[in-house]
Amino acid sequence: MKNVTDSFLSLVHWSSAGSFGFNTDILATNPINLSVVLGISIFFGKGVLSDLLDNRKQRILNTIRNSEKLREGAIEELEKARARLRKVEIEADQFRVNGYSEIEREKVNLINSTYKTLEQLENYKNETIHFEQQRASNQVRQRVFQQALQGALGTLNSCLNNELHLRTINANIGILGAMKEITD
Fold it and tell me: Where are the transmembrane segments (predicted)?
């Protein structure tokens, strides 16, 4: 009986082996089947996988080469930019120094110009004061002279009578005649 049961189980087993399907139970799958499938996959997929990996490797190497070229170009551009920056900084320092010295020159020129202007204004002021003093002095002299003349005329008019007046005129005419004879 045991043989019958074993053969029945054996038939059942073989009858299910004739159908095709995937056994998703990992513990129930046959390790030999897995190794055969993996072996076939590796054998046939090896070329494709190798080509894919080689292509990927070449793309990565090309990307690295391009990156290196770009990096070298960027380094060169950076050095050029640094050189330009140094040049500009030197020029800026020169402009700054020249600007400061120009400012100092302008400051000194402005101070000198201001002193000259102040000196000229002081001279003009002194000349104006001197002129005004002379004018005031002349005005005082003219008033004094006019007052003296008016006083003298007033005194003469009060002291002179017609006879004295005629004698003074005759004396002056005589003096003028004598002067005329001397000049001839």
Answer: 32-49
Grade residue 57 by pLDDT with cuts at 50, 70 and 90. very high
pLDDT in tens, 145-182: 899 888 887 877 777 677 777 888 889 898 888 888 88
> Mind spelling out the 3-state secondary structure of the chain?
CHHHHHHHHHHHHHHHHCCCCCCCCCCCCCHHHHHHHHHHHHHHHHHHHHHHHHHHHHHHHHHHHHHHHHHHHHHHHHHHHHHHHHHHHHHHHHHHHHHHHHHHHHHHHHHHHHHHHHHHHHHHHHHHHHHHHHHHHHHHHHHHHHHHHHHHHHHHHHHCCHHHHHHHHHHHHHHHHHHHHHHC
What residue type is 103 in one-letter code? I
Q: Are 23 and 29 in contact (CB under 8 A)?
A: yes
pLDDT of residue 9: 44
pTM of the predicted model as reported, rounded to 2 decimal places: 0.37
